[in-house]
Amino acid sequence: MTALTLTQGLTRKARFAGLLYLVIIVTGLGAELALRAPLIDLGDADATAAAILAAPSQFRFAIAADIVMALSDAGLAILLYLIFRAMAPGLALSAMIFRLIQTVLIGASLMALLTAWLVLNRAEALADASTLALVFLDLHTHGYDLGLVFFGVNSLIMGLLVWRSGLFAKAFGAGLALAGLVYLIGSSLRFFAPDLSSAFMPAYGLTILAEMAFCLRLLSQKAPR
User: Fold this and answer.
1) What transmembrane ranges does the database entry give (predicted)?
2) pLDDT tens readout for residues 18-36
């Protein structure tokens, strides 16, 4: 594994990657925390149905933000591969594939949100539509976490690539690797020990810090003189 050499082309790719990373962070957190979280209570089907039907634009805008996030994530996966392939083509390709799998799973899970919306808007023709819609909303949550399993593997590989690149401080690589562990543990708890999942949620703050730090580092990449 050889260190990367900074070039004008690599600098442009790094800055564009940083921009896409920023879009992903803003749209991803915005969709989940700012737009969707106030509407959905997985413990109360009727209240959730009422909240979504009372704010249809907010619910649909959250889906639109997730679509933008998924598109940006696919672009970022390709850019990061182009940046790191000269150093370790096998690892760079593996990282891209795992990130793209995550993107596909998160994109596919949006169908569960759309199905919940369709169910709620046809409530008069369905028995217990609120409960059925909540099942699909919960399915979206699990689909998102399944995607994060693959993203966790991607983050571990990216942590190694960043650590060995010679272009970034090793702390950024360590941060990404730590984020990967958090994603893997968090998703494992969601599927196999859901009672512990809520207690682990604060650990996701580490992922936000690590990814935002790397995003800003990419955006600040300076061209060689």
Assistant:
1) 19-39, 59-84, 96-120, 146-163, 175-193, 199-219
2) 999 999 999 999 999 999 9
Distance CA 222, CA 225 (A): 9
Find the DSSP H helices in the chain: 8-29, 45-54, 56-84, 89-120, 129-165, 170-192, 194-200, 204-219
What is the distance between the alpha carbons of residues 37 and 49, in angstroms, rounded to a whole number? 13
What's the full length of the chain, in residues? 225
Give the separation between CA 17 and CA 22, rounded to whole angstroms.
9
C-alpha 200/C-alpha 52 separation (Å) is: 27
* Residue 225 scores a pLDDT above 90: no
d(CA 98, CA 69): 16
pTM: predicted TM-score of the whole model, two decimal places: 0.93
- Site of tokens 């990282």: 95
Burial class (CB in 10 A: 0-12, 13-18, 19+), 176: buried
Question: What are 171-183's pLDDT values in tens digits?
Answer: 999 999 999 999 9
How big is the chain by its Cα radius of gyration, in Å?
Answer: 19
At 32 the three-state DSSP class reads helix
